[in-house]
Design brief:
4-stranded mixed beta sheet, 13 helices, Arc Repressor Mutant, subunit A, alpha+beta
Length: 358
Amino acid sequence: MTHVLTREDARRIAVRAQLLDANRPSDVVGVAEQLGAIKIDPTATIAPAELTILWSRIGSSFESLQLTKAVEMDHQLFEFDGAFRPLSLLPLMRPAMRRWPTRESSRRWLKANAVFRGEVLARLRAEGPLTASEIPDTAEVSIPPDGWYGSNQVVHMLDFLQRQGEVAVVGREGRTRRWDLAERVYPTDLPEYSDEEAEHLLNERRLHAAGIAKQKSPWTPVGEAGEPAVVEGLKQKYRVDPEAVAALDHDDGGRVALLNPYDGMLFDRPRLKELFEFDYVLEQFKPKPQRRFGYFAHPILMGDRFVGMLDAKVDRTAERLVINAVHEFLSFDEEETEMLRAEVDDLAAWLGVDLGEW
């Protein structure tokens, strides 16, 4: 069956799948189960990504300790490749871990550093959990610093070993990761899947989190998951979660949401442009004269449309949320202004700071 959707229907499906509709969730683990990944990033003009992503869904009742508890105490979430993920995804990811690395340069680096690899694992086995700085760098071959990574090869080795399922992040000391052997962090009774089974189930999970995605999207690969869909006015072939289509008749409506620039809702840029007519560009790495909206401006979602950008920053010295600018794509009416103000008020309350002048 091929579903024929209006662009508005497609947007509503995407918004609801990302838990940005009027029906707010209340549970950190439940949010992670639905989204599949909660990006970790330290840029904190307002708050780090992993916290604002959860606040955008749950609201001011969310506390950062809830995330810490889910990861480090209850072990319902785990950190992998720069994101917190639900434990239910780990069995589906393990076949790809066993195949990694697929890039020849990574294989050569691991082969050249076989002794170093063994020493890192031995140190963790004897003394873990450890931070990267507590493990000697004895690499025979180095990867040069690239702006993201420094010269410490232990960081590279730990990341490589994580991708192979050999080590895992057990927790954090501030922004610093603590590592241990994966066998001491992950459960030992996880189900096993073949490569084909795991890929099929991962595609279904990705589509469930997206609601609707292009069939051949490198941004949101969903393969043959779900059912085919046509969006009126668009030529692209989509796949849609049939449960999301059925839920359109029970839509609770929209709300205002302020999205961290690393929010998963913004990840698939082509889909944003096609469905939402929102050509989003992160200006964090642009020279200041080339920025239109601000260094780390947060997109404003109102219902199923992106209507503007919020350029704001927390002044911790003054304990105040400073609103530098609200960029309106189209002028807000009085009701829309009040809806936005209420969400910004909630943001300030969650941050525990006063709200500065608009």
